[in-house]
C-alpha cells in the first residue's frame, strides 16, 4: 500500500457465534482528511464486508455513529484518524449497552426512559388553530435551546458510571430532554415529568460525576440540566407539602 497506513483494532461480536467478543486488526491506508468512520467504511468496502456498524449523516447530526475510540465515547464521524492518540485506532462498541453485533448496540432501554418523560410539548387544552401559532420571544427560545441540541447519540450513557452500575437510572439524555420541555414556555407537562424524575430511579441517582457533559458532542450539558432539575423537583416537593392542591401549579 502506498502512502500513510494505520492499524484499526476493532472489537468484533457475532451473535450467531455465541462466544465472547474478539479483536480483529486491519491495516489500511489513510489521508489526513479521513475520520474514523471513513476508516471503518474503507474496511467494510475494501477489506471485510462483514464488519457491522451504524452511521448515516457523516456530519454529527444523526447521532448514530457512536463508538468508543481508544477508550473514549465519540462520534466516529467527528474524529480525524490523524488526531487519534497512539499508533492504533482501537474501536469498540459503546459501553453500558447490550451488543447486537460488532459495533451496533441496543438502545431500547433509553427509548423507554425517554418516553417516560414525555419528550414533546404537553398542552392541557389546545387553542383553536384560528387563534394562530404559539409564538415565543428569542429569550424564551434561549431558555431550552441548549438541551434541544441533543441528537440522541447515547455517548453520555456510555460515559456515565452511575448508569454503568445500575441501568435503572433514568440517565443523562432523558433527563436533559425532560428539562428541555419543562423550560419551554409552550409546555404544561412539568408536573408529570418531575413526578417521573423524582422517583428512586430518577435524577437523585446522579452523583454529578459530569462525564456525560464532557463527552457530549453538542454541549447539551446533561449534568447541569440534572442539577437544575433537582432544584425544580425540590421546589415541587415543597409546594406539595405546604400548599393546598388547588394552588400548587
Ligand atoms: S446529551 Fe449529548 S451525549 Fe447525550 S445523547 Fe444528547 S447529544 Fe448525545
Ligand atoms: S454519522 Fe451521523 S452523527 Fe456521525
Structure, explained:
This protein is α+β, with helices and mostly antiparallel strands and about 250 residues long. The chain has 2 domains: about 5-105, Beta-grasp domain (Ubiquitin-like (UB roll), Roll); about 110-245, Fumarate Reductase Iron-sulfur Protein, Chain B, domain 2. The chain is built from 9 helices and 7 strands. The strands form 2 sheets. The chain has a 5-stranded mixed sheet. The chain has a two-stranded antiparallel sheet with strand order 6-7. Helix 7 (about 190-195) packs across helix 9 (about 220-240). The longest helix is centred in the C-terminal third of the chain and has 21 residues, at about 220-240. It is elongated, with a radius of gyration of 21 Å. The mean pLDDT is about 95.
Number of separate strands: 7
Order of helices and strands: EEHEEEEEHHHHHHHH
Radius of gyration: 21 Å
Number of domains: 2
What is the CATH fold-level name of the largest domain?
Answer: Fumarate Reductase Iron-sulfur Protein, Chain B, domain 2
CATH architectural name of the largest domain:
Orthogonal Bundle
Helix content: 25-40%
**Oligomerization category of the chains in this entry:** single chain
- Regions with little confidence, pLDDT below 50 for 5+ residues: none
Find the structural class using helix and strand composition.
alpha+beta
The CATH homologous superfamily of the largest domain is called: Alpha-helical ferredoxin
Going across the major beta sheet, what is the strand order? 2-1-5-3-4
* Biggest sheet details: 5 strands, mixed
- What's the tally of helices? 9
What bound compounds does this protein have?
iron/sulfur cluster, FE2/S2 (inorganic) cluster
User: How large a portion of the residues is in β-strands, by DSSP E?
Assistant: 5-15%
Query: Residue-averaged pLDDT, rounded?
Result: 95
CATH class of the largest domain: Mainly Alpha
Based on Cα principal axes, name the global outline.
Answer: elongated
> What is the distance, rounded to the nearest whole angstrom, between the alpha carbons of the first and last residues?
68 Å
Amino acid at each position: 500500500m502506498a502512502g500513510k497506513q494505520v492499524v484499526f483494532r476493532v472489537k468484533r461480536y457475532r451473535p450467531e457465534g455465541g462466544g465472547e467478543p474478539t479483536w480483529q486488526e486491519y491495516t489500511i491506508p489513510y489521508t489526513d482528511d479521513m475520520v474514523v468512520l471513513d476508516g471503518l467504511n474503507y474496511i467494510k468496502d475494501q477489506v471485510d464486508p462483514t464488519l457491522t456498524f451504524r452511521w448515516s449523516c457523516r456530519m454529527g447530526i444523526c447521532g448514530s455513529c457512536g463508538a468508543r475510540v481508544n477508550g473514549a465515547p465519540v462520534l466516529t464521524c467527528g474524529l480525524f484518524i490523524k488526531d487519534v492518540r497512539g499508533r492504533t485506532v482501537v474501536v469498540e462498541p459503546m459501553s453500558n449497552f447490550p451488543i447486537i453485533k460488532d459495533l451496533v448496540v441496543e438502545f431500547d432501554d433509553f427509548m423507554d426512559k425517554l418516553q417516560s418523560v414525555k419528550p414533546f410539548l404537553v398542552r392541557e387544552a389546545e387553542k383553536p388553530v384560528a387563534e394562530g401559532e404559539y409564538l415565543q420571544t428569542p429569550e424564551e427560545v434561549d431558555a431550552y435551546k441548549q438541551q434541544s441540541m441533543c441528537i440522541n447519540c447515547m455517548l453520555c450513557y456510555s460515559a456515565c458510571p452511575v448508569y454503568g452500575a445500575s441501568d435503572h437510572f433514568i440517565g443523562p439524555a432523558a433527563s436533559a430532554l425532560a428539562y428541555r420541555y419543562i423550560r419551554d414556555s409552550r409546555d404544561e407537562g412539568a408536573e408529570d415529568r418531575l413526578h417521573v424524575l423524582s422517583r428512586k430511579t430518577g435524577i437523585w441517582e446522579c452523583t454529578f460525576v459530569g462525564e456525560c457533559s464532557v463527552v457530549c458532542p453538542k454541549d447539551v450539558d446533561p449534568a447541569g440540566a440534572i442539577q437544575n432539575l433537582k432544584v425544580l423537583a425540590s421546589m415541587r416537593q415543597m409546594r406539595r407539602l405546604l400548599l393546598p392542591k388547588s394552588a400548587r401549579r
